[in-house]
């Protein structure tokens, strides 16, 4: 057709030689076979059979099929099976809905709304339940503020990022989501969030902690990129990667100890502004239960803006459901947030939620010896424990074992965050297939923005309140934890063999590394004073990075083929 004569026998022999030397060539041939098989109609049929044996069809090819054939392709392609998550989004998009609705209604409307809801679940569970219970556990263990800050507090703040990364790393074809999210969130936080803090409240940053955090983060980024570049990792390398965070924690603790030795300790106390009635008032059990399930503070409601109220109305039903399922222990309160009727209810609902949500509900259908459902056994045990606690405690005085409820709340929160993170990863994978976008670009945009938007608002709020140093420390300290623990635990739970997205991975790692190097050079030159000029520079840097990443994704920027 193009005026060239093709020797099909020579092509067949050449390809057979390549098949013995590189299985990857066969996969490429298989993936493009549908579009080129008509052109090379005389090629040896053994080639097609060899490729079919060695190569597994990728689910991304579903959009190359006709609308009528996509459902059958999703059903018959193992790569399209969504093992994690409660909903098979690919099957829903291509089999349960009319084909003409798939590109617009599902991807741009329903999926985005559901994705927003999942991010709300992640944020609420982490901020309202996971973090407070971790704080209670650290108080029970009598940990210092420095140790608690770089361990339990960092885990609480980074829970959505870490669980999302672990969920994405659990499958090679979604590992790109974790890569894009961790690198994308790192760039977003160190440029947009840090730049916004500098714009709102120019200040002089603490020199040694800033340089320490930047150096450790550069090391983590470089190590991560090396593992991604090779496409595989060993157990020893993964353990060494995790140990880097241990070294970071020890460095923070030792630095704080040396600093405190040189300074006089000044104890400041903040008066608790919580409202307390002048006269004692005893509520009934039903009143305690109803007030405990009310997430709206009427005094705060009157002070807040209409935007905050609108978002609160959206979150309230979900927050009530979480209050029913997850206990919260608050060591700062006089009664440590002991709510007898609600805590007794937690002994029933919390274990049941763990069974139904763990491993995407796999244990919810488990039958003991094929006869007795596991969830029913857990329900009966919860009822028994709840009755004992209710009969042996009072409404006013928390029991000695009340701190154990913090451990229960921590476990339930972790299970729910993990379940929501798995749903986010599965949904983003479906969006990538339908929109023909790579998992990496979805990770560095939607997943990174969704997981980081809470940190953005909280750090900006802290800066406005007059604590910009605390905000900038949170920017770097949190992302170091997310990078090292997210990648390290993901690789430890399952030795990942992933194929990077080539040039896009270079753009991600290079942009993050460049932003850190520029901060490492520019901030000392400015005598560690972060002003509005530096903030504008960081925001412009992120916009340029985003443009370059998207141009790379769509093929406008590519490597020069030789």
Give the proportion of residues in helices.
55-70%
Total helix count?
Answer: 22
Strand-pairing-aware structural class: mainly alpha
Tertiary shape: globular
CATH topology of the largest domain: A middle domain of Talin 1
The CATH class of the largest domain: Mainly Alpha
Number of strand segments: 4
What is the succession of H and E elements? HHHHHHHHHHEHHHHHHEEHHHHHEH
User: Which strands sit side by side, in order, in the main sheet?
Assistant: 1-4
Q: How many domains make up the coordinates?
A: 3
Largest sheet: 2 strands, antiparallel
CATH architecture of the largest domain: Up-down Bundle
What oligomeric arrangement do these chains adopt?
A: single chain
State the end-to-end distance.
Answer: 26 Å
Task: Give an account of the 3D structure.
- The chain is an all-alpha fold and 562 residues long.
- It folds into 3 domains: 9-82, no CATH class; 112-261 and 315-338 and 420-553, NCX, central ion-binding region (A middle domain of Talin 1), CATH 1.20.1420.30; 340-397.
- It contains 22 helices and 4 strands.
- It has helices at 8-21, 23-31, 33-36, 45-54, 70-76, 89-96, 102-140, 145-157, 159-169, 175-200, 207-230, 235-262, 285-292, 298-303, 306-325, 340-357, 374-392, 404-435, 439-464, 468-493, 503-525, 532-553; strands at 203-204, 367-368, 372-373, 529-530.
- The chain has a two-stranded antiparallel ribbon. Strands 2-3 form a two-stranded antiparallel ribbon.
- Strand 2 (367-368) and strand 3 (372-373) form a beta hairpin.
- Helix 11 packs parallel to helix 20 (468-493).
- It is globular.
- 37% of the residues are buried.
- Residues 1-56 and 264-280 have low confidence and may be disordered.
């Amino acid at each position: 057709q193009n005026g060239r004569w093709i020797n099909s026998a020579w092509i067949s022999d050449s390809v057979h030689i390549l098949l013995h030397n590189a299985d990857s060539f066969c996969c490429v041939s298989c993936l493009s076979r549908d579009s080129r098989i008509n052109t090379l109609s005389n090629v040896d049929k053994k080639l097609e059979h060899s490729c079919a044996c060695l190569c597994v069809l990728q689910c991304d090819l579903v959009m190359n099929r006709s609308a009528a054939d996509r459902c059958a392709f999703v059903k018959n392609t193992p790569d399209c099976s969504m093992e994690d998550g409660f909903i098979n989004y690919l099957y829903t998009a291509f089999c349960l809905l009319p084909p003409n609705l798939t590109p617009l209604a599902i991807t741009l409307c329903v999926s985005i709304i559901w994705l927003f809801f999942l991010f709300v679940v992640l944020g609420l569970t982490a901020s309202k339940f996971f973090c407070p219970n971790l704080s209670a556990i650290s108080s029970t263990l009598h940990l210092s503020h420095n140790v608690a800050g770089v361990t339990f507090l960092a885990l609480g703040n980074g829970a959505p990022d870490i669980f999302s990364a672990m969920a994405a790393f659990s499958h090679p074809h979604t590992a790109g989501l974790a890569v894009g999210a961790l690198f994308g969130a790192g760039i977003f936080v160190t440029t947009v969030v840090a730049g916004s803090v500098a714009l709102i409240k120019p200040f002089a940053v603490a020199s040694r902690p800033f340089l320490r955090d930047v150096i450790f983060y550069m090391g983590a980024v470089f190590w991560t990129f090396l593992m991604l570049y090779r496409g595989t990792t060993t157990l020893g390398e993964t353990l060494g990667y995790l140990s880097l965070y241990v070294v970071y924690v020890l460095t923070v603790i030792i630095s704080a100890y040396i600093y405190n030795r040189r300074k006089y300790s000044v104890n400041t106390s903040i008066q608790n502004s919580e409202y307390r009635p002048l006269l004692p008032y005893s509520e009934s059990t039903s009143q305690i239960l109803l007030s405990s399930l009310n997430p709206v503070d009427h005094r705060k409601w009157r002070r807040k803006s209409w935007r905050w109220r609108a978002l609160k109305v959206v979150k309230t039903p979900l927050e009530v459901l979480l209050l029913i399922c997850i206990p919260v222990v608050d060591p700062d309160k006089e009664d440590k947030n002991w709510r007898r009727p609600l805590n007794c209810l937690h002994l029933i609902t919390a274990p049941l939620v763990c069974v139904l949500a763990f491993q995407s509900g796999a244990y919810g259908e488990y039958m003991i010896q094929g006869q007795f459902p596991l969830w029913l056994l857990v329900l009966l045990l919860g009822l028994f424990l709840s009755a004992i606690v209710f009969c042996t405690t009072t409404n006013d005085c928390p029991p000695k074992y009340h701190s154990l409820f913090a451990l229960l709340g921590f476990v339930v929160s972790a299970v729910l965050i993990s379940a929501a993170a798995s749903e986010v990863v599965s949904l983003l994978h479906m969006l990538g297939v339908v929109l023909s976008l790579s998992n990496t670009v979805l990770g560095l945009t939607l997943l990174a923005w969704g997981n980081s938007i809470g940190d953005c608002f909280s750090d900006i709020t802290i800066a406005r309140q007059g604590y910009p140093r605390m905000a900038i420390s949170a920017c770097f300290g949190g992302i170091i934890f997310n990078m090292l623990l997210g990648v390290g635990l993901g690789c430890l739970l399952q030795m990942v063999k992933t194929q990077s997205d080539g040039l896009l991975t270079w753009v991600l790692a290079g942009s993050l590394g460049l932003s850190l190097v520029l901060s490492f050079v520019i901030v000392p030159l400015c005598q560690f004073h972060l002003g509005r000029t530096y903030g504008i520079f960081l925001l412009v840097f992120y916009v340029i990075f985003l443009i370059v990443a998207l141009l790379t994704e769509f093929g406008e920027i590519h490597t020069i083929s030789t």
